[in-house]
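FIELD: query
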Amino acid sequence: QLQASGGGLVQAGGSLRLSCAASGSIDDINVMGWYRQAPKKQRELVAGFTIGGLTNYADSVKGRFTISRDNAKNTVYLQMNSLKPEDTAVYYCAADRHTIARMDGVDYWGQGTQVTVSS
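FIELD: result
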């Protein structure tokens, strides 16, 4: 089970930090990350860890968003700075045994948390 939190309403240029805590069958989880889905758009990968511990970011968030994790807490974070109105979306935590690079292969999804950036 993935429990996401930290969304909200922020003005452009502001910051938010999302958190996602894994519980239950965490032995099945080796990689975690974040997707987002804006209205009338497809869900897209925002940031994630690879099984080798590397990080990947969507081009649109590079230099503004930072993904991190606390293995002791089974939690992954997404620090979002310099937010833009186009970052407005529902953000979903994702977790898998192998990779989260393919949305249709992700094993576990969080419930989603709304991020709204006003101009």
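FIELD: remark
DSSP finds no helices and eleven strands in the chain.
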